[in-house]
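Hi R.,

Here's the chain you asked about this morning:
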Amino acid sequence: MQPEKVVNHIVNWLKEYATNARMDGFVIGISGGIDSAVASSLCAKTGLRTLCLEMPIHQHKSQVNLAKEHVAWLQHHYANVSSLEVDLTTVFEDFKTVVPKASNSDALALSLANTRARFRMSTLYYFAGLHNYLVAGTGNKIEDFGVGFYTKYGDGGVDLSPIADLIKTEVYKLAEFLEISTDIIDAAPTDGLYGDSRSDEEQIGATYVELEWAMKEAEKGKTAEEFEGRQNEVFKIYKGRNKANLHKMKPIPVCGIPVSLKN
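And here is the predicted structure, written out as tokens:
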């Protein structure tokens, strides 16, 4: 991988897309994680206006601190970057009071976690509409096209995805080239949707390096039976999540009506 050339390619792509779409810049959510740090830095390097939004909802203090650290770093290096914090905690709590109580605790926890992501998506589009900005996504290739580790119409609801063709290890290489804070690079990846410090890898059951391996093997047409031990386990995790989350990755199904029924 050639980090400098990849960075220049993405920055030019972002700038060209925004210019052709007659948009004035980008709005992006800052979580304190490496993906949003890299994606926001790439947006900032376009020279176009870049609004960084912090949108905490019962956020773990370490995530909040990392997000603030990155925003401060961006604003120190790029004059085109502005920032705003929109605390959605009260919105989230108010929502919980008006919906029916659920008896299935696991389903409730997941549904509320996804609700957090969808509140953030709505907030990003609110500011995008105000300023004629594009909502920039922060998903990487493993999350967006491998295991589907994102919220449908949450962090998956974006206008364009600058790093979605990069696997996680490639995102780390860009982070080092861009001189992203080592605190962010060294932090365990987390979606931050549960208000605690649980990592992505704890939720998925495999590391990103393992998932990258499984994705490559799956693309070769391999099956779980061809592997043993931990490899067999990881491959099954990857294939299971990929199959379960295909509905996120494919276009919305449309019911086609036969012409004969329309006449």
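One quick note: The first strand starts at residue 25 and ends at 29.

Cheers,
M.
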